[in-house]
Amino acid sequence: MKLWxxxxxxxxxTRLGLEYLAALLLVxxxxxxxxxxxxxxxxxxxxxxxxVSGWVSRRAIQGVDIESxxxxxxxxxxxxxxxxxxKDRAPRRIRGLSLNLELEGGRVEPTFHGGGAIxxxxxxxxxxxxxxxxxxxxxxxxxRTTYPFGFLEKSRRFPLDxxxxxxxxxxxxxxxxxxxxxxxxxxxxxxxxxxxxxRPFREGDTLSRIxxxxxxxxxxxxxxxxxxxxxxxxxxxLDLQAWAPGQTFEDELERLSGLILQARIHKRFVSLEVxxxxxxxxxxxxxxxxxxxxxxxxxxGAAQGPRLT
Length: 309
What we know:
- By secondary structure, the chain is an alpha+beta fold.
- It folds into two domains: 1-166, no CATH class; 187-295, no CATH class.
- 26% of the residues lie in helices and 37% in strands.
- The strands form five sheets. It has a six-stranded antiparallel beta sheet. Strands 3-4-8-6 form a four-stranded antiparallel beta sheet, with no helix packed on it.
- The longest helix has 25 residues, at 37-61.
């Protein structure tokens, strides 16, 4: 039920509000039938409380505008964050707002903005899980409140219509790389070698370096990383003409994305060599490689169905 509606703010009665109105009506009927002044007083107090609730909660949602939406590195099927920058014309006012993001191809956890800040600018992070890589679109951001008593629900919708890029899921692979993609290993130096950390097992690692405790915790082979190992960088290769569209191609992109993430964690340089119908390209840096993988399309063969495991 809509009590008031314009282009900016919607006001509707909640279930609690309907129950409260039913109780208010019941008290009013008893007051009229009995002529009891105390019931009239209770009726007046309840009616005033309902009106004040609507006014205060409507005031709580006014004066807030969306300045921008900032996305970081968002991976498919991994919980990430979209940061919303708010501009509050009354920063010290208590808000009690729920932020709900409308987007395609993913799920968003509503977050809370309480207000009461000193600055008129603030950031709120919304947790997002996207279903697939590629371009997605934010349709709108809705502010909603039931503050302070929950009788009336106020909502204000901000159309955004903004695209953003979702990167391939960073799958960690312990299997040897395929012929379409390859990675360079660490180059050991001479001198005293002391284990300083652990990393996933790679082709060429010896069994004597396996980190048994970490392997038991993760359920996959991990090895000790030595302090005198110097990163040789990671060079990846992707031949789009060697892959057909389908789940196998998506798995390869996720494997490459996982290698890029591991290189980034260990602060190693990453380059991606791309072979396709176009001239050979070399993309330097993790972010450039990720962005290409997010939009990559297979160019060879017929479409493949899901691979059975």
